[in-house]
Each structure stands twice: as structure tokens, then as C-alpha cells.
């Protein structure tokens, strides 16, 4: 029986595209032409692929589609950060944040799920639970849509969702980002952030190259269990072991994200334990003062406490960078993305 469901070519990794075309009796180099059309020229119509024979274009349009996102809204922060909201085919929506860096380069923060199952107590995304995984095409389409109007130099998988909870689609999306005839991002330009799904961290390292960021946020299992329930399954010792095993290129380092929360994880004792935990790992630390939101009683520490914590690390030769919560005034800062996942509770939506 022939299926009437068309394949979205943006769901296919470059290798899968070659296989798909082989199934139509086409040579491998056709995939190079098609990748160029889709990712370098942003074409979504087979009719526009003018270096392919007309009969081939027609056959393609019988069997496949190329989806794209239309931008629903964009909000611009006073610091230049832009938050895009994209509507998905099932009415849900996803958020993507473009962050201009001091260097003049742009970093794009993309989402990998609608919502998140991990339920970290400080994170707004986590409060709503997991709605669903994003398809490969939905991960990639965030990049396609923003690149239509802006240059994107670096990509971070730090938006909504836990990327390693959607590993297959994330790996496919990375392969598309890296394809030399597609977007052609080097693996050093892309960073994946995880809450610490230990087996998936090793699998990721085996399957593909990408910079790894780990949301650490605590220095004892007791506190981390409270902040990040995933810690009950993969406690600190297992997590740090997985970090030690993660394959790193010569000058590459793991990034540890550490949200500073007043009275919870910001003491000198925490700083001391953090130095111990990181011993022997090539790493840097991003210190992120907690971003306030309506669903949480937590507070950021005061300026003095933040500086003291940072200085303690710097004095012990740990690269510790303070991250400003960019885009605060448009709720685009870390952990503040929620798309339209709350719509379930809105009457009539
Ligand atoms: N799920 C992945 C990636 C997305 S979360 C992960 O947890 O790593 C992106 C980052 O936002 C994480 O480092 C998380 O610790 C941080 N974050 C979440 N809520 C925050 C808040 N209220 N203030 C500051 N950072 C927050
Ligand atoms: Fe999910 Fe990351 Fe938020 Fe935790 S911090 S709930 S893992 S998005």
C-alpha cells in the first residue's frame, strides 16, 4: 500500500536524505543540490529548484514537503534580545531567542521540546510539564526562520526542553546544522545544555560532536535533589563521572551553569564544594543570578554575595563568568520560556 503521508525533508538527516533519494533511484549528489536549496537559499518549493529536472521536481512534490515556520510574534528587549514565537501545526507554540553579543555576533537559543518533563523547581518551563517533543524539522525550522532576517553565529540548545530527552531528533538536527552543503556550522559553534541525563550524555558523546553545558546549580545531593529531581536518578557523583568521560577536543571545555539562588546555593561553603567537584575537569563556570518569575519564591543573591562567590572561584583558577540575564524585560531570559503550553488552562483555547 502506498502511503499518502509526505515526508518533510527537514525531518531527514543528510544521510537519511541520501537514502530517501536512493529509494527514488537518484544519485547521492542530488542530496547536495537539495540541501543547498533548502538550507542555504531557504527554498520551500520544489518548483524553485531549477537545477533539478522538471520530472524529478514533480516526483519530489508528490512524495515530500518542505515545511517552514511563520513568525507569530517577536518581542524586542531594551538590550537588543529578540524573542520569537512560532506556531506549530497542532496549535502549540515554541520560543526561540536571538541574543546579540558584545562581540557583534549573534547567538540563537533554540528549543527542543514543548515544555519539559524535568520539573526543576526554579524553572518556569518545568512548571508546565512536557507537552511533546519537537520533530527534527521543528528544531531546524527555528534556525531557518531566524536566519531569513538575521545572521546567526552560534547556536545554543538552551531554550524550552531537555535536549537529551529528545536525543534522536536533536542528533538529526545537529547533523543538519553541521552539513557542509547546508548550514555548515562547525561543532564548536553549537552548545547543548543538559540537566544531567547521564546515560544520554555518554550516548551523545559517542554519536556526535557538540559543546556540552551541564546545569549543575548545587553542590550537594540534598540541595540538588530539591532543585532538580533528575538528581535523584543520577546523583552528583555519577554526573561528574559522566562529565569526566565526555570526549573533549584539545582546547574544548565543559560549561557548568550555576544559578545563584539566595540562601540556597550561594554560600562560601558552596563555592568551596564547587571547586572540589570540578577538580580535574576541563571546564568553565557560568554564574547566572536567578531570574525571578511569578511561579517561584526564590530570589537572586545581592551583588556582594554574587561577587564573593565569583571571586572565590577565580582565585582558584576556575574560569567563572557572570552571565547577565539578557532579555529580562520580555521574559526571554534563561528558564523563562513557556510558549503557549499554558493554553490548556485558558478557557476556550
Ligand atoms: N533543559 C536544559 C536546557 C534548557 S534550560 C537544561 O536544564 O540545561 C536552560 C538554562 O536555564 C539551564 O541552565 C537552567 O538551569 C537555567 N534556568 C532555568 N530557570 C532559570 C531561572 N529562573 N533563572 C536563571 N536560570 C534559569
Ligand atoms: Fe527542563 Fe532545563 Fe527547565 Fe530543568 S532547567 S525544567 S531540565 S528546561
CATH topology of the largest domain: TIM Barrel
Count of β-strands: 14
Share in helix: 25-40%
Q: Mind telling me the CATH superfamily name of the largest domain?
A: Aldolase class I
- Euclidean distance between termini CA atoms: 38 Å
Order of helices and strands: EHHHEEEEEEHEHEHEHEHHHEHEHE
According to CATH, what is the class of the largest domain?
Alpha Beta
Query: What fraction of residues sit in β-strands?
Result: 15-25%
User: Which molecules are bound in this entry?
Assistant: S-adenosyl-L-homocysteine, iron/sulfur cluster
Shape: elongated
Biggest pleated sheet: 10 strands, mixed
Number of H/I helices? 12
* Order of the strands making up the biggest sheet: 3-4-5-6-9-10-11-12-13-14
CATH architect. name of the largest domain = Alpha-Beta Barrel
Low-confidence stretches: 342-349
User: Residue-averaged pLDDT, rounded?
Assistant: 93
What class, by secondary structure content? alpha/beta
Radius of gyration: 21 Å
Number of domains: 2
Amino acid at each position: 500500500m502506498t502511503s499518502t503521508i509526505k515526508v518533510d525533508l527537514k525531518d531527514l538527516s543528510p544521510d537519511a536524505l541520501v537514502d530517501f533519494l536512493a529509494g527514488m533511484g537518484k544519485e547521492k549528489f542530488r542530496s547536495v543540490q537539495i540541501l543547498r536549496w533548502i538550507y542555504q537559499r531557504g527554498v520551500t518549493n520544489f518548483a524553485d529548484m531549477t537545477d533539478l529536472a522538471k520530472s524529478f521536481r514533480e516526483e519530489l512534490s508528490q512524495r515530500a514537503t518542505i515545511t517552514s515556520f511563520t513568525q507569530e510574534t517577536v518581542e524586542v528587549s531594551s538590550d537588543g534580545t529578540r524573542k520569537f514565537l512560532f506556531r506549530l501545526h497542532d496549535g502549540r507554540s515554541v520560543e526561540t531567542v536571538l541574543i546579540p553579543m558584545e562581540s557583534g555576533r549573534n547567538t540563537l537559543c533554540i528549543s527542543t521540546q514543548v515544555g519539559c518533563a524535568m520539573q526543576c523547581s526554579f524553572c518556569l518551563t518545568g512548571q508546565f510539564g512536557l507537552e511533546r517533543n519537537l520533530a527534527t524539522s521543528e528544531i531546524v525550522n527555528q534556525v531557518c526562520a531566524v536566519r531569513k532576517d538575521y545572521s546567526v553565529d552560534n547556536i545554543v540548545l538552551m531554550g524550552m526542553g531537555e535536549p537529551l530527552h529528545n536525543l534522536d531528533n536533536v542528533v538529526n538536527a545537529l547533523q543538519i546544522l553541521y552539513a557542509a552543503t547546508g548550514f555548515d556550522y562547525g561543532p564548536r559553534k553549537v552548545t547543548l545544555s543538559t540537566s544531567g541525563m547521564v546515560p544520554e550524555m555518554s550516548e551523545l558523546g559517542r554519536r556526535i560532536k557538540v559543546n556540552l553545558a551541564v546545569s549543575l546549580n548545587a553542590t550537594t545531593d540534598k540541595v540538588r535533589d530539591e532543585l532538580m529531581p533528575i538528581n535523584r536518578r543520577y546523583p552528583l557523583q555519577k554526573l561528574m563521572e559522566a562529565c569526566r568521560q565526555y570526549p573533549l577536543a584539545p582546547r574544548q571545555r565543559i560549561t557548568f551553569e550555576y544559578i545563584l539562588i539566595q540562601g540556597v546555593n550561594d554560600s562560601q561553603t558552596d563555592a568551596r564544594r564547587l571547586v572540589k567537584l570540578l577538580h580535574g575537569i576541563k571546564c568553565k563556570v557560568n554564574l547566572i543570578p536567578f531570574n525571578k518569575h511569578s511561579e517561584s519564591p526564590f530570589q537572586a543573591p545581592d551583588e556582594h554575595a554574587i561577587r564573593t562567590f565569583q571571586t572565590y572561584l577565580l582565585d582558584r583558577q576556575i574560569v567563572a563568568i557572570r552571565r547577565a540575564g539578557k532579555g529580562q524585560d520580555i521574559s526571554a531570559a534563561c528558564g523563562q520560556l513557556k510558549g503557549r503550553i499554558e493554553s490548556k488552562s485558558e478557557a476556550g483555547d
